[in-house]
Specification:
alpha+beta; 5-stranded antiparallel β-sheet
């Protein structure tokens, strides 16, 4: 009985109801289950990509959505806590996409904030797993939030952004890609 209760609770918080469409995330730059293109790979730490943030488009957010956040995370990083590659928050509720290369080029919607990555800077930081590792998984997730703004500066690290995002999530959708070298 506890398992069923937990599943129903998770569905009421994150899942779609019969009257609500399922939230979806798509990308022209990322194909779920496939290798990440060099355009989205980091250009440092021994990697020679272009470090261009990917295009992301979402739909099916709950009506109560007041803002969005995007998080990019590598759970396979050999740190004991994964690696935050991108955190974007305070995206207005009327937004439904982020253009290719929007990070750092002032192409993000007005009021949007980019937190710090585990590379130590704000903005997008592409894939760059250690040479010889099995390909890592990169999870790009858009979150529909119940608040207009998160009370965080652009210096907030990914883990802190993730804490506030998860505390205010109505629904979410993800695309996972891989990259190895």
């Amino acid at each position: 009985m506890r398992i069923i209760t937990a599943v129903l609770l998770a569905t009421s918080v994150f899942g779609a109801t019969a009257a609500q469409a399922e939230m979806k995330l798509t990308s022209k730059d990322l194909t779920a289950g496939k290798a990440m293109a060099d355009a989205q790979v980091f250009n440092s730490f021994g990697c020679a990509g272009k470090n261009i943030s990917p295009e992301l488009t979402w739909s099916g957010a709950p009506e109560a959505t007041k803002s969005f956040a995007i998080m990019a995370y590598d759970p396979d990083a050999p740190t004991g806590s994964g690696w935050w590659h991108w955190s974007v928050f305070n995206i207005p509720a009327n937004a439904s996409e982020i253009a290719t290369g929007a990070s750092g080029d002032k192409k993000l919607p007005a009021g949007t904030v980019e937190g710090h990555t585990d590379f130590g800077t704000s903005g997008y930081g592409g894939a760059c797993p250690p040479a010889g590792d099995a390909p890592h998984h990169y999870q790009f997730t858009v979150y529909a939030l119940s608040v207009d703004k998160l009370p965080l500066p652009d210096t907030a690290p990914g883990a802190m952004v993730g804490f506030y995002v998860r505390a205010n999530t109505l629904d979410k959708a993800s695309v996972e890609v891989t990259y190895g070298r």
